[in-house]
Every structure is written in C-alpha cells, then in structure tokens.
Amino acid sequence: NSKLAIVAALVLVAASLPAAAQDLPSRDRVVRSVSFRGNRAIDDYTLRTSIATSQSSWQQRSAILRWMGGEKRYFGETEFRRDVLRLTLLYRQSGFFESTIDTVVERGPADVRVEFLITEGQAVRVAGVGVSGTDHIIPSSELLLDLPLREGDPFSRYRLQASIDSIRSALQNRGYPWADVFRNDDENRVRHEARVWFAVD
Q1: What does the pLDDT look like over 124-164, one tens digit per residue?
Q2: Which parts of the chain fold into alpha helices (H)?
Q3: Which of 196, 197, 1, 195 is nearest to 97 (CA)?
Q4: Ramachandran region of residue 130, left (φ > 0), alpha (ψ -120 to 50) or beta?
Q5: Nearest to 137 by CA among 192, 175, 184, 164
Q6: Most-buried pick from 1, 107, 137, 155 (CB within 10 A)?
Q7: Sign of torsion, CA 184 148 94 12?
Q8: Is residue 73 within 8 Å of 31, Cβ to Cβ?
C-alpha cells in the first residue's frame, strides 16, 4: 500500500536524522499530561511507549505536589508532529488501515497538555490461516493452535512475524535448525479481510 509505505518512510527518515538536526525539547513548557481517547484495540501503555512525547513524573503532574520535585519532561514541537506519524504507523501495522490520529494541545505559559484523538476505523481481519510442509514433522493443526495470529484477529504485521518465529522455533526444537518459513497473504481492504498461509522448507 502506497500510503503505508509513505508513512513508514517518513518515520524511518525521522528516526535516522542526526542528533544535531533533530528538534530538541525547549525549556519553555513542561508536559503535564499525555492522554489518548478513542483507542480500544491498542492500550494506553503500548501507545505511550510508541511515541517520544512523554508526561512528567506524578509529582510534576499535580499542582499541589510540584514542590516535591520529580522529573520534568519538556515539549518538543517536531517530535510531537512525528508522534502522529508513529501512532499512524503503529495502527496500520496492527491491521487498522483506516485509522486517523488527531490532536488537542493545551498550551499554557509554562506547561502543555496533550491529547491524541484516535479514530481506529474498521480493522482488516484474518479470514483464514494455513501452514504447509510440516505434516511429516508436526501436524499443521497442532502448529496453528500456538500461532499468535489467528482467524478473526486484526491482520497485525507484528503477530504475523511472531507466527513465523513460532513455527521456526517449533521445528528447531524437533531437530530442524535450518528450517525456513515463507509467508504469503491475500489482503482485501474492501472486504476488510486477509488470508495468510505459511510454507515451510
């Protein structure tokens, strides 16, 4: 998908910029809160760990307790804009190709509060999973029971790779250290479904 490729390329470019060229957080505004609204498929913790903008320590988030100190996190405009791309890529890699990310930023004289507004859209879901080339070692039905990617799940690229690793590990544990696992998928975003199969050599 061309849009996904563009997003991925932009994130890679952002990640590869030399430190001197990257936006450094100013000391003007402290991040008091970072929140998410509208996310159901991906939890807040996963979203927080996927972005650069982070909220200050619990002491700094409370006007009453700030005298106790705690760590201050400062707001960087450029990294914040990149965070929208990071979240977009995370959702699309997780099977939510229709997702959109909007933001609400409350800027005060010395602090800022950030909220990401997420519209997940309809996920592309796995309509079928198959494995071939293993029945003389492990029945494919047995392998399918342990795969991270299952029928009915969102078509996650992360679970897809984890499933490849799972099949390879199962074969290595049975004495096939050089086993290769190839995958193919038939993805239809109009019907919001994908079929995945793994071929083992």
Answers
A1: 999 999 999 998 999 999 999 989 999 999 999 999 999 99
A2: 2-16, 44-48, 58-61, 77-93, 140-146, 157-172
A3: 1
A4: beta
A5: 175
A6: 155
A7: negative
A8: yes
